[in-house]
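A common beginner's mistake is to predict each chain separately and then try to dock the pieces by hand. The better habit, illustrated here, is to supply every component at once so that their relative placement is modeled jointly.
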Amino acid sequence: MVVSDTSPALAAIDLTVRYRGSSVPALNQVNMGVPRGMFYAVLGPNGSGKSTLLRALLGVVAPVSGHACVAGRRVMDWERRALAREVGVVPQSESVAFPLTVRDLVAMGRYPHLRGLQAETPDDRQAIATAMERCDVVAFANRLTSTLSGGEIQRARMARALAQEPNSLVLDEPTANLDIRHEMEILELLRTSVDNGMTVFFITHHLDLAARFADRILLLSEGEVVAEGEPSEVLDEETLNHVYQWPVSVAENPVTGTLHVTPLPTPTDPTPRKSTGSSRSDPSR
Amino acid sequence: MSPRAWSATLILAVIGAFSLSVWLGSVDLTIRETLAAFTGRGDTSIRQIVVELRAPRAVLAILVGGGLALAGAVFQALLRNPLAEPYILGISGGAATGAVLALALGLAVSHSWALPIAAFVGALLAITLVLRVAAAADDRVDVRVLLLAGVVVGAFFTACLSFVLSISDARTVRSAILWMMGSLAGADWVTVMTVALYTLPATLVLIGLARPLNLMAIGEETAGYLGTNVERVKKVAYVVASLLTAAGVAATGIIGFVGLIVPHGVRLVVGADYRMLLPLSFLAGAVFLTLADVVARTMLSPIEVPIGVITALVGVPLFLLLLRRSMGSTSWW
Amino acid sequence: MDHRGIKAAKHCLFATLISACGPGGPDGGGVSVPLDGSGGAPNGQPVVVTDDAQRRHEFVSPPGRIVSLVPSATETLLAFGLGDHLVGRTEYDRTPELSSLSSVGGGLQPNLEILLALEPDLVIRFAGESDRATAERLTDLGVPHFAIQPDGIADVQSIIRRLGAITGAEAAANSLLAEIRSALADVQERVEGLPLRRVAYLLGGEPPWVAGPGTYIHELMILGGGTNVFDDLGQLYVPVSLEELIDRKPDLLLIAESGSAPPKLSSIPSVRLPGSIEVPGPGLGDAAREVARLIHPEAFP
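With all components supplied together, the output reads:
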């Protein structure tokens, strides 16, 4: 399939989305673009429009004005199965109505490649096996999803998205339920994929993780773009204080060399303040 | 047993059930007499019994039993609800109201076709009404609204039907109740051909939707992300499965439990992949209803026990048995 | 119902023929027999009879293998002494004479397999829409069937007459009809001039189902010197509220054998009818007498 290398993997142009019954737009005149081969993180407080942006970019939600593009083409012009081969999505949550094994769940990632009732080919089986290995879910291939923990299911869903062999991966808080090891494994996996040409669009609450792994960050607040750029540009104390309505301190982690964000105690918090390492500005009262 | 082995077994079972169904009945026949009837030899009345009475009845049981089980499986995926069955969306209420009106207005006097046609029209009305209610302004179908609309429309029709019955004479009431209990007794070759004309294409269409229906089980949003045209699948699945049910109800009245129990039983044995679940549900439903009909006809001969009674009395313990055996490895929501 | 109008028309059509061949009296359906009065096969002329579904039947010879799905027809044939012509029965035929015969189940929607296996040359069935499908199946399968609708007194007499013609048992039919006629006349005489008693017939149920005009029991009530308090109903049997029943001030309640008098109406005299007189049939004379006796016991010392 012909893919324009210069066009952004995902882009929003003057995108405004309003949900029915709401007077306030969920996204207001959002302009952003995910360059190909980038690890792009989306941050923002609850209700800032992150998930809405994801839905709008993938054509699930229709905008009131403006439009969304995938690989240089308007998302509404994409044929669904082709879009599914281009972009793999790991949603924030899913409920499985009937008992399903992990292998069956991951195998669904190959559906966009299969016509009608066509059986799986060896290529499909290989893609599924590889994806399951990389997400460390091979051990429960035959277990039902209902018997897994939240984190294990999330890894299974990630495997499904990888099995799609897409050019871009879109993930909505994929590490929310994962322990340190699995979280790091997933992020390292994503980082490696990006290094190999995959584009990653990653919604998260973990400011530190975004700072460490992302090439670019988009910061949203109340449906509008507050900042977009490299982590060092976006993760600025004043900006974050304003967006999150909570005082924070941004500092460089001596071990990893990347930025980390620390929420500060407010004046009413009784816990004694410990002295911090090098800090970019004085803690605000 | 692999799904392929199950298919072969069930196909053989369908043939076996058909054979039993033409051999057994109120009148005892030897196997030889039964076979002779098919080749045009033998006693006239025996030939009539086998070829004009039993054979079309057996074929109708296969078509309707298979259709109901298939529709049940489809509705379970569509509504993401293991309690879904073909009548949950008001179809039986609509069909029964149509049939009862035809009886009460004496429409069935002119031609006995009036009854199935009236039932079908009633079912269509219910289907259309439910779809209208469930489709939002932007034409998207919310399946939770679909379920609610179906239950409510069904209740409305049931009330209409009770009203009509309450002001009807005793004969009408009796005929209506007999119709509603469901029976394959009216099967003749014309009915069978008509039902087959719809059932066979509908079955192919629904089996073709196996993968999209698999995806519906993990949610519409994800299904969309994996390439499914969710709105189209919902509408096609709903309409085709509903019409399949309506065709069955028009021909045989209301036969319950098949659409609920058979898909579950098949799921417990072969798993949730609809590429296997759909065709196997059809075959299992066909076998189940054919055998249930044999029991209904022979148990208290000459009286025919209403087939809905048999499907429940036999189906429920059978299903519970399957459920217990798989309890260790299955957990419901 | 239309059915009644058509019957009336039939009366006119066949009136001359009928008056020419048998004793006078109410008659439904047409019977055409040679004018010498002996009727049927022996003369080689076929008997032509119309049934209550308005179909003409020609009988070259009397049927010898009959299955009757209608109890009153069964009783009539037994009264003619033609029990050996019956080859099957329904679940409702409990007389010892018939117990050895195979049952075809209910009178409506009989078991077709058993029916076919009995190889009948005539099936007597109920006319009316509730049995349309069976009628069509029988036609498709080539089984001759004759429809009757024994709703009232006139129907019963017409059925006796027609069955007599069909089976060549005119003599028995005529004598049965004469018996009935004389019983009816006797009843009429006895209740002549007596004040009309207000009566209601209850089938049972809550609210109770009552009989309106057009039913057999209604006619018996009128004949027996009573008046049906529900003679304005549009249908044969309908459920009515207890209030309505009380409001109409019946003097007597006739209760069906399988029913019961509503406890709230215990102040109104009620009597349970034996099952045998509730169904229209050849026992018409006895039934009329019994009902009249219950309504006017004083006329039957």
